[in-house]
Amino acid sequence: MSAIRPKLVLLGSGFAAFSLLKEVDVKRYAVTLVSPRNHFLFTPLLPSTTVGTIEFRSIIEPIRTARKGIRFHQAWCDHVDFEKQQIECRGAFKGSNFFIDYDILVVGVGGKNRTFEIPGVKEHAFFLKELGDARDIRQKVIENFERATKPQRDVEEVKQLLHFVVVGGGPTGVEFAAELHDFVTQDVQKWFPDVMEYVQITLLEATGNILTQFDAKLSEYALKIFKRSHITVKTNSVVAGVDEDAVANGVTLKDGSRIPCGLVVWSTGIGPTDLAKSLGAPIGPTNRLLVDEFFRLDKHENVYAVGDCSEMDGVDLPPTAQVAQQEGKHLAREFNRLALGQEMRPFKYKHRGMMAYVGNRRALADLGSFQGRGFTTWLLWRSAYLTKLVSFKNKFLVVFDWTRSMIFGRDISRF
């Protein structure tokens, strides 16, 4: 290596890019991170923020304060010029363009919400991927309860306003439905007792079961908990469209039936971003950038892709926070070895299991040798996520939020 530090440019601020940022040797690399979001978001706890179990700022870490000795630009990357080794960026605010040169480029831009081009989803459904999404959902839930208590409101309109539909039976959809149920039964019913009989939560899943990543017995347990909580689960229910009517929304299924509702939360996985599609690199079976065991893009020795935007050739890894975090940390360590003149080593994923909250202080844990469920597993679920939070500040705030919501209840203010 020369005395001049190689220019390492990171695109994105998710688990992969942020983990790399925290581990890479900034004394040996001139690190620049570019992202339209100026913070890292701990997404596993995002469903908890939609109802106020945890407050928004408790699960974010500003990029600028996360690591000294780096540069950060809040912007989108619109184009990569591989020949010039230069990226073109667009500022996140007034949109002014600028260029950044790189010696090594790491693409960690994640994915965008997958809508399958179903009519009305983008216009009328709420996603749950960013902090702004969680805030919008929280506002809408409270708004619907306030609207439902309007004098002389028609009963059918009340039923529609208080019917909350979640599309997608993966961990995010299941955890949001569970958090919403807890919020309604533990807090909202104290202040809106007259309309509680009309509240309904429905989970729609296109396949034959929910939480298919978990052991079948744990998925069945989740269904039992939901049935006991009066959360309706409809499997093999393919959505054909989402619309808006005079009251709120409606979800049309492939069989032609329509479900009137007051809120649609869409959680059906992710697809490639516009930048990932524009790179002209090979795309794998799951529509993500295809990389080798070192995370290199085809024909580009100094361009890497990690996290949800990439998939390793011949290796089936899910687009989860756990995978992205391991990928980012591994690549950082290999860059540090490269700076010392050592060869990079291939990535080997170590599966540490999966966990999910299913409501009523019950959780699932599928950790390979251990499979747990119930209250004790819920304590384990909280403990595990607490240890994974980035900073002591985040850990303190999350514990404070859990304690506050348990003692005083969740806030129902809309502002």
Care to describe what's here?
α1 (15-23) packs parallel to α10. The protein starts with 6 loop residues before the first strand and ends in a 7-residue tail after the last helix. By secondary structure, the chain is α/β, with parallel strands linked by helices. It has twelve helices and 24 strands. The model has no long low-confidence stretch (mean pLDDT 95). It has helices at 15-23, 46-49, 63-66, 121-124, 131-148, 155-161, 171-191, 216-228, 274-278, 321-339, 375-388, 392-408; strands at residues 7-11, 30-35, 39-41, 60-62, 71-81, 86-91, 97-101, 104-107, 111-113, 126-127, 163-167, 200-204, 231-234, 239-244, 249-253, 258-261, 263-266, 270-272, 289-291, 303-305, 310-312, 354-359, 362-366, 371-374. The strands form seven sheets. Strands 7-6-5-2-1-8-20 form a seven-stranded mixed sheet. The chain has a five-stranded parallel sheet with strand order 10-17-11-12-13. α8 links the parallel β12 (200-204) and β13.
